[in-house]
Amino acid sequence: MSVIVVGEVDGNDVKEISQQVAAVASGMGDVIGIVMGKGISDAAMKLSTSKIIIADDEALEYYDPVKFTSIVAQIVNQNNATKVLMGATTMGKDLGPRVAAELGWGYLGDCLEAGNEGFVRPNYAGKVLAKSNTTDSVVLSIRNNAYPAGESWSGSVENFSGEIPDSGLTTTTIENVGAGTIELTEASIVVSGGRGLESPENYDEHIRPLAAAMGAAAGASRAIVDAGWVTHSHQVGQTGKTVTPDLYMAIGISGAIQHLGGMSGSKFIVAINKDSEAPIFKVADYGIVGDLFEIIPLLKSKLEN
Amino acid sequence: MNIVVLVKMVPDTESRLEIVDGKVNESGFKYMVNPYDEFAVEQAVQFKEANGGKVTILSLFSNDGSIDTDLRKMMAIGADEAIVLRQDNYRGDKPSANATVLSNAIKEMEADLIIGGVQGIDYYQSATGPMIAHMLGIPHISGVTNLELNDGKFTAKRQVEGGLQIIECSNPLLVTCQKDMTKVRFPALKDIMMSKRKPFESRTVEPVESNDVETAECSLPPARGGGMIIEGESSEDKVDKLIEKLKTEAKVI
Ligand SMILES: Cc1cc2nc3c(=O)[nH]c(=O)nc-3n(C[C@H](O)[C@H](O)[C@H](O)COP(=O)(O)OP(=O)(O)OC[C@H]3O[C@@H](n4cnc5c(N)ncnc54)[C@H](O)[C@@H]3O)c2cc1C
């Protein structure tokens, strides 16, 4: 039984999430990796699957749902594969459903668990876990950090030789908005700020430098996104991003149910809030009751030393 | 320009989530318009105001009529009509079945643009939009933060890791909206009054076979063992203790 893993590269490497997915898939059958892109062959070879099919083509420079779906489906059919797995990245969440529709298979997005004992995925922003035990063919996307990554090693390599269709979509460029910043959903530490910061200047003065000092991504509550202090791409919660880092720091955030939905799957949670009754403390592994304007500068300077 | 807006009715975010016999007890749920879909309605109306055409709201739901008032509010934003597909035993967690029913309805509507929210805040699959596009044989762009229309050509900005992918496409096209896309207006009283006279059609549709994976069992996530407050003489003392714990207990820094 063969299982397909759709890998993604980032610069000269395979994404960590793709190696995690490769590790999950290795328990499900003979794993064939697919990596699509332009000029990605060297990086693609690092995907930890025993066989790797590389589609390296001018036409694949940017992610395109129509082209990528067609390639994945062709490889599934040639290999009689019964599962397709990918990371729940912006690509995976977009590609997975379309591949499922093309193959006529079921789709389970953003799985927290996937294996022979079944599949678990979050409903209601993680407030409910839904388990299923299908043995049918299925397309899965897997949440970052749900599994440890497989070791990077290279299997046998083949080049994709099928057709790449036209899609009608033309990507002109990728605009780097946050060059040098770490992506929230991929970060192992997230430092988030809320209304307790009182102003956008304080977000820039306290949250961003602390995040930088910790090698963390900077997040936010909806209150300060709605107030226009930071863009929505920072928002954590039920109508923002779901993050599952090793460490989540909630600073001046009350811990509304919609915020908790996006971060309560984190391994460790730190809360800093001046109100000892703030609901965020109920989910925090370590809480400090106090004034953030006093605590954050201390924390930052001590971490920098 | 003929625009179809996909609107999903989802349980209110304050809904009590209680599990009975491995299933979520949905009996007390109140439904609201999926927040991401409101951006789609607003964007569609803006295109109509600039270029003319028609905006149709399309929603698939059960026979429960309690949602109609909320859907009418979307018409007050400026949509021209609403079609609600009523299905016995409708479930929001069957993206493939729901995409089949919705795409069948859209096939008869000659849409230039089909637009919806990036995800439903009930099951978070982000699946129905791309599946509908595939069933219609048209391209899609998901998670769009900005959509412009110039000389019949769409330019979309799509959020990706570390940046924005700029994509051009002509119609027909399916787009799903991210939250930053546009600001949703508060309808004026006269628009609210007018919306009551706009066409609102309920159509019965049959359930369809699909390969959607059925949920076998639901559970609440294990409660977090939180609640530990770090005590100390001074802020500095607390910070020292926190750093110590993060290093030695949690081992995350
Ligand atoms: C449909 C819907 C969807 C939503 N989706 C989301 C979502 O995705 N994400 C999200 O975050 N919210 C979401 N919300 C909003 C949510 O309900 C809260 O309003 C929001 O999370 C509050 O943000 P906050 O914690 O920053 O602000 P507040 O609740 O105002 O909390 C500020 C906190 O800062 C503390 N504080 C103040 N000054 C200091 C100081 N000097 N030092 C230390 N602490 C201080 C206060 O004690 C307080 O606890 C949603 C709401 C709805 C209705």
Q: Quick recap of the structure?
A:
Chain A has helices at residues 16-25, 41-44, 65-79, 90-103, 200-214, 222-226, 257-263, 280-283, 292-304, and strands spanning 2-7, 9-10, 13-14, 30-37, 51-56, 83-87, 106-111, 113-115, 118-123, 128-132, 138-142, 156-159, 170-175, 189-193, 217-220, 247-251, 268-273, 286-289. Chain A is of the alpha/beta class. In chain B, a hairpin with a 2-residue loop joins β9 and β10 (153-160).
What would you say this structure looks like, in words?
The complex is a heterodimer of chains A (305) and B (253). The radius of gyration of chain A is 21 Å and the shape is elongated. The N and C termini of chain A lie far apart (53 Å). The mean pLDDT of chain A is 94. In chain A, α5 links the parallel β14 (189-193) and β15 (217-220). Chain A has two domains: 2-159, HUPs (Rossmann fold), CATH 3.40.50.620; 184-304, TPP-binding domain (Rossmann fold, 3-Layer(aba) Sandwich). In chain A, α3 packs across α4 and α5 runs parallel beside α9. In chain A, 29% of the residues lie in helices and 29% in strands. Chain A contains nine helices and 18 strands. Chain B starts with a strand and ends in a 5-residue tail after the last helix. In chain B, α2 (68-77) crosses α5 and α3 packs across α4. Chain B has two domains: 2-204, 3-Layer(aba) Sandwich (Rossmann fold), CATH 3.40.50.620; 221-253, no CATH class. By secondary structure, chain B is an alpha/beta fold. Chain B contains six helices and 14 strands. Chain B has helices spanning 35-51, 68-77, 95-107, 128-136, 189-195, 235-248, and strands spanning 2-6, 9-11, 19-20, 23-24, 31-33, 54-61, 81-86, 113-117, 140-150, 153-160, 163-170, 173-177, 200-204, 217-219. A nine-stranded mixed β-sheet of chain B has the order 11-10-9-12-8-1-6-7-13, sandwiched between helices. In chain B, strands 2-5 form a two-stranded antiparallel sheet. Chain B is globular, with a radius of gyration of 22 Å. At the A-B interface, α3, α4, β7, β9 and β10 of A face α3, α4, β9, β10 and β11 of B. The structure holds flavin-adenine dinucleotide (FAD). Flavin-adenine dinucleotide binds next to α6, α7 and α9 of chain A.
